[in-house]
Amino acid sequence: MSKIGIIGAGEVGSHIAQAALLTGHRVVLANSRGPETLKDLIDELGPNASAATAVEAAQAGDFVIIAVPMKRENDMPTESLADKVVIDTNNYMAWRDGPWPIIQSFEKTEHEIRQEQLPKSKVVKAFTHIQAPRILTWGKPAGAPDRLALAASSDFPEAIAVVRALYDQFGFDTLALRPLSESWRITPGQPAWKQERHSAAALRENLAKARPVPRP
Ligand SMILES: NC(=O)c1ccc[n+]([C@@H]2O[C@H](COP(=O)([O-])OP(=O)(O)OC[C@H]3O[C@@H](n4cnc5c(N)ncnc54)[C@H](OP(=O)(O)O)[C@@H]3O)[C@@H](O)[C@H]2O)c1
After folding, report:
1. pLDDT tens per residue, range 119-140
2. Which residue's CA is the closest to the ligand 1 atom numbered 21?
3. Pocket flag, ligand 1, residue 57 (CB < 6 Å)
Protein backbone atom coordinates (compact mmCIF):
# COMPACT_ATOMS: atom_id res chain seq x y z
CA MET A 1 0.00 0.00 0.00
CA SER A 2 1.20 3.49 -0.81
CA LYS A 3 1.57 6.84 0.80
CA ILE A 4 -0.20 9.21 -1.57
CA GLY A 5 0.44 12.94 -1.65
CA ILE A 6 -2.73 14.82 -2.60
CA ILE A 7 -2.42 18.48 -3.52
CA GLY A 8 -5.90 19.96 -3.46
CA ALA A 9 -8.33 19.01 -0.72
CA GLY A 10 -11.60 20.14 -2.29
CA GLU A 11 -14.26 18.03 -3.99
CA VAL A 12 -11.89 15.73 -5.90
CA GLY A 13 -8.97 15.61 -3.46
CA SER A 14 -11.14 14.76 -0.45
CA HIS A 15 -13.10 12.02 -2.29
CA ILE A 16 -9.98 10.39 -3.69
CA ALA A 17 -8.52 10.56 -0.18
CA GLN A 18 -11.55 8.69 1.19
CA ALA A 19 -11.32 6.02 -1.51
CA ALA A 20 -7.58 5.65 -0.93
CA LEU A 21 -8.04 5.26 2.83
CA LEU A 22 -10.80 2.69 2.32
CA THR A 23 -8.41 0.65 0.16
CA GLY A 24 -5.60 0.73 2.72
CA HIS A 25 -3.42 3.64 1.59
CA ARG A 26 -2.15 6.55 3.64
CA VAL A 27 -2.71 10.10 2.40
CA VAL A 28 -1.01 13.43 2.96
CA LEU A 29 -3.26 16.30 1.92
CA ALA A 30 -2.47 19.93 1.09
CA ASN A 31 -4.50 22.94 0.08
CA SER A 32 -3.54 26.55 -0.70
CA ARG A 33 -4.32 27.99 2.74
CA GLY A 34 -2.11 25.82 4.91
CA PRO A 35 -2.33 22.55 6.88
CA GLU A 36 -4.02 24.14 9.89
CA THR A 37 -7.12 24.82 7.75
CA LEU A 38 -7.47 21.07 7.03
CA LYS A 39 -7.94 20.02 10.67
CA ASP A 40 -11.67 19.17 10.38
CA LEU A 41 -11.15 17.13 7.21
CA ILE A 42 -8.21 15.21 8.70
CA ASP A 43 -10.24 14.49 11.86
CA GLU A 44 -13.00 13.10 9.63
CA LEU A 45 -10.60 11.03 7.51
CA GLY A 46 -8.87 9.40 10.47
CA PRO A 47 -5.39 8.39 11.57
CA ASN A 48 -4.01 7.39 8.17
CA ALA A 49 -4.55 10.92 6.85
CA SER A 50 -2.42 13.94 7.61
CA ALA A 51 -2.19 17.56 6.49
CA ALA A 52 0.90 19.24 5.09
CA THR A 53 2.06 21.98 2.78
CA ALA A 54 2.01 21.25 -0.95
CA VAL A 55 5.81 20.83 -0.94
CA GLU A 56 5.61 18.35 1.94
CA ALA A 57 2.74 16.42 0.33
CA ALA A 58 4.73 16.21 -2.91
CA GLN A 59 7.81 15.00 -1.06
CA ALA A 60 5.87 12.49 1.05
CA GLY A 61 3.99 10.77 -1.75
CA ASP A 62 5.15 7.57 -3.45
CA PHE A 63 3.11 9.22 -6.15
CA VAL A 64 1.16 12.46 -6.07
CA ILE A 65 -2.32 13.52 -7.11
CA ILE A 66 -2.95 17.10 -8.18
CA ALA A 67 -6.63 17.95 -7.68
CA VAL A 68 -6.38 21.67 -8.32
CA PRO A 69 -7.70 23.76 -11.23
CA MET A 70 -4.71 24.60 -13.43
CA LYS A 71 -3.32 28.11 -13.32
CA ARG A 72 -1.42 29.92 -16.08
CA GLU A 73 1.46 30.49 -13.68
CA ASN A 74 2.57 27.06 -12.46
CA ASP A 75 1.64 26.99 -8.75
CA MET A 76 2.72 23.39 -8.12
CA PRO A 77 5.97 22.45 -6.30
CA THR A 78 7.83 21.46 -9.45
CA GLU A 79 11.11 20.36 -7.89
CA SER A 80 9.45 18.28 -5.17
CA LEU A 81 7.40 16.51 -7.86
CA ALA A 82 10.46 15.67 -10.00
CA ASP A 83 10.88 11.98 -10.86
CA LYS A 84 7.41 11.15 -9.51
CA VAL A 85 4.24 9.93 -11.14
CA VAL A 86 1.79 12.84 -10.93
CA ILE A 87 -1.89 12.07 -11.43
CA ASP A 88 -3.63 15.25 -12.56
CA THR A 89 -7.42 15.50 -12.31
CA ASN A 90 -7.84 19.00 -13.71
CA ASN A 91 -10.31 19.90 -16.45
CA TYR A 92 -9.85 23.23 -18.19
CA MET A 93 -13.18 25.05 -18.03
CA ALA A 94 -13.37 28.31 -19.98
CA TRP A 95 -16.22 29.59 -17.77
CA ARG A 96 -14.04 29.12 -14.67
CA ASP A 97 -10.45 29.42 -15.93
CA GLY A 98 -10.93 32.18 -18.54
CA PRO A 99 -9.92 32.14 -22.21
CA TRP A 100 -6.93 29.93 -23.00
CA PRO A 101 -6.57 29.89 -26.82
CA ILE A 102 -3.88 27.20 -27.00
CA ILE A 103 -6.26 24.77 -25.27
CA GLN A 104 -9.47 26.02 -26.90
CA SER A 105 -7.93 25.61 -30.38
CA PHE A 106 -6.93 22.01 -29.54
CA GLU A 107 -3.28 22.87 -30.12
CA LYS A 108 -2.45 21.41 -26.70
CA THR A 109 -4.44 19.84 -23.91
CA GLU A 110 -4.37 21.08 -20.35
CA HIS A 111 -2.44 17.94 -19.47
CA GLU A 112 0.23 18.50 -22.10
CA ILE A 113 0.64 21.96 -20.58
CA ARG A 114 0.84 20.43 -17.09
CA GLN A 115 3.49 18.03 -18.38
CA GLU A 116 5.45 21.05 -19.68
CA GLN A 117 5.06 22.74 -16.30
CA LEU A 118 6.40 19.59 -14.60
CA PRO A 119 9.06 18.43 -17.08
CA LYS A 120 10.77 16.02 -14.69
CA SER A 121 7.52 14.35 -13.57
CA LYS A 122 5.48 11.63 -15.25
CA VAL A 123 2.09 13.25 -15.66
CA VAL A 124 -1.01 11.14 -16.16
CA LYS A 125 -4.52 12.45 -16.66
CA ALA A 126 -7.07 10.53 -14.59
CA PHE A 127 -10.31 10.92 -12.61
CA THR A 128 -11.31 13.82 -14.90
CA HIS A 129 -14.55 12.34 -16.21
CA ILE A 130 -16.30 11.09 -13.11
CA GLN A 131 -18.05 13.29 -10.58
CA ALA A 132 -15.94 13.03 -7.45
CA PRO A 133 -18.53 11.47 -5.06
CA ARG A 134 -19.11 8.64 -7.55
CA ILE A 135 -15.54 7.46 -7.06
CA LEU A 136 -16.88 6.10 -3.77
CA THR A 137 -20.15 4.62 -5.03
CA TRP A 138 -19.72 3.38 -8.60
CA GLY A 139 -16.88 0.89 -8.08
CA LYS A 140 -17.47 -2.86 -8.61
CA PRO A 141 -15.30 -5.90 -7.94
CA ALA A 142 -12.94 -7.02 -10.70
CA GLY A 143 -14.74 -9.18 -13.24
CA ALA A 144 -18.24 -7.85 -12.42
CA PRO A 145 -20.20 -7.73 -15.71
CA ASP A 146 -21.28 -4.13 -15.11
CA ARG A 147 -17.88 -2.82 -13.99
CA LEU A 148 -17.24 0.66 -15.38
CA ALA A 149 -14.04 1.84 -17.06
CA LEU A 150 -12.15 5.11 -16.68
CA ALA A 151 -9.45 6.51 -18.95
CA ALA A 152 -5.84 7.23 -18.06
CA SER A 153 -3.74 9.26 -20.47
CA SER A 154 0.02 9.72 -20.35
CA ASP A 155 3.24 9.49 -22.29
CA PHE A 156 4.57 7.16 -19.57
CA PRO A 157 3.42 3.51 -19.33
CA GLU A 158 4.60 3.39 -15.69
CA ALA A 159 2.32 6.33 -14.83
CA ILE A 160 -0.63 4.56 -16.46
CA ALA A 161 0.28 1.46 -14.43
CA VAL A 162 -0.01 3.46 -11.19
CA VAL A 163 -3.46 4.70 -12.20
CA ARG A 164 -4.51 1.23 -13.35
CA ALA A 165 -3.69 -0.20 -9.92
CA LEU A 166 -5.55 2.61 -8.15
CA TYR A 167 -8.62 2.43 -10.43
CA ASP A 168 -8.69 -1.33 -9.92
CA GLN A 169 -8.60 -0.95 -6.13
CA PHE A 170 -11.39 1.64 -6.34
CA GLY A 171 -13.46 -0.73 -8.50
CA PHE A 172 -12.90 0.44 -12.07
CA ASP A 173 -11.30 -0.92 -15.23
CA THR A 174 -8.73 1.19 -17.08
CA LEU A 175 -8.62 2.31 -20.67
CA ALA A 176 -5.15 3.61 -21.55
CA LEU A 177 -5.08 6.60 -23.89
CA ARG A 178 -1.60 7.19 -25.28
CA PRO A 179 0.21 9.41 -26.03
CA LEU A 180 -0.83 12.32 -23.82
CA SER A 181 -1.68 14.39 -26.90
CA GLU A 182 -4.64 12.01 -27.37
CA SER A 183 -6.10 13.22 -24.07
CA TRP A 184 -8.18 15.83 -25.93
CA ARG A 185 -10.58 12.97 -26.68
CA ILE A 186 -11.81 12.99 -23.12
CA THR A 187 -11.92 16.71 -22.42
CA PRO A 188 -15.13 18.53 -21.38
CA GLY A 189 -17.68 18.62 -24.19
CA GLN A 190 -16.60 15.29 -25.73
CA PRO A 191 -18.94 12.25 -25.71
CA ALA A 192 -16.56 10.25 -23.51
CA TRP A 193 -16.56 13.05 -20.93
CA LYS A 194 -20.29 13.80 -21.03
CA GLN A 195 -21.44 10.24 -20.59
CA GLU A 196 -20.02 9.10 -17.30
CA ARG A 197 -21.10 5.45 -17.08
CA HIS A 198 -18.98 3.49 -19.55
CA SER A 199 -17.99 -0.08 -19.99
CA ALA A 200 -14.49 -0.31 -21.50
CA ALA A 201 -16.06 -0.99 -24.94
CA ALA A 202 -18.45 1.98 -24.70
CA LEU A 203 -15.64 4.25 -23.55
CA ARG A 204 -13.50 3.15 -26.50
CA GLU A 205 -16.40 3.87 -28.88
CA ASN A 206 -16.98 7.32 -27.44
CA LEU A 207 -13.28 8.19 -27.55
CA ALA A 208 -13.36 7.39 -31.27
CA LYS A 209 -16.30 9.80 -31.70
CA ALA A 210 -14.32 12.80 -30.35
CA ARG A 211 -14.39 15.94 -32.49
CA PRO A 212 -12.83 19.38 -31.93
CA VAL A 213 -16.03 21.05 -30.70
CA PRO A 214 -15.86 24.25 -28.61
CA ARG A 215 -14.78 23.67 -25.01
CA PRO A 216 -17.34 24.62 -22.35
N1 LIG B 1 -15.57 18.29 -8.74
C2 LIG B 1 -15.56 17.22 -9.53
O3 LIG B 1 -16.41 16.31 -9.40
C4 LIG B 1 -14.48 17.07 -10.57
C5 LIG B 1 -14.42 15.87 -11.31
C6 LIG B 1 -13.38 15.68 -12.22
C7 LIG B 1 -12.43 16.67 -12.40
N8 LIG B 1 -12.51 17.85 -11.70
C9 LIG B 1 -11.45 18.86 -11.91
O10 LIG B 1 -10.46 18.69 -10.87
C11 LIG B 1 -9.93 19.97 -10.46
C12 LIG B 1 -10.23 20.18 -8.98
O13 LIG B 1 -11.63 20.25 -8.82
P14 LIG B 1 -12.37 20.34 -7.40
O15 LIG B 1 -13.82 20.28 -7.72
O16 LIG B 1 -11.78 19.39 -6.46
O17 LIG B 1 -11.98 21.83 -6.97
P18 LIG B 1 -12.23 22.50 -5.54
O19 LIG B 1 -13.28 21.78 -4.79
O20 LIG B 1 -12.37 23.96 -5.82
O21 LIG B 1 -10.84 22.26 -4.77
C22 LIG B 1 -9.65 22.83 -5.24
C23 LIG B 1 -8.59 22.58 -4.18
O24 LIG B 1 -7.34 23.03 -4.71
C25 LIG B 1 -6.65 23.72 -3.68
N26 LIG B 1 -5.63 24.58 -4.28
C27 LIG B 1 -5.79 25.58 -5.15
N28 LIG B 1 -4.56 26.11 -5.47
C29 LIG B 1 -3.66 25.39 -4.78
C30 LIG B 1 -2.24 25.45 -4.65
N31 LIG B 1 -1.53 26.34 -5.35
N32 LIG B 1 -1.63 24.57 -3.82
C33 LIG B 1 -2.34 23.67 -3.11
N34 LIG B 1 -3.69 23.55 -3.18
C35 LIG B 1 -4.33 24.42 -4.00
C36 LIG B 1 -7.75 24.46 -2.95
O37 LIG B 1 -7.28 24.89 -1.70
P38 LIG B 1 -7.96 26.16 -0.96
O39 LIG B 1 -9.39 25.81 -0.72
O40 LIG B 1 -7.16 26.28 0.30
O41 LIG B 1 -7.76 27.32 -1.90
C42 LIG B 1 -8.80 23.34 -2.86
O43 LIG B 1 -8.49 22.49 -1.78
C44 LIG B 1 -10.62 21.00 -11.37
O45 LIG B 1 -9.84 21.27 -12.49
C46 LIG B 1 -11.92 20.30 -11.78
O47 LIG B 1 -12.42 20.80 -13.01
C48 LIG B 1 -13.51 18.05 -10.79
Report:
1. 999 999 999 999 999 999 999 9
2. 10
3. no
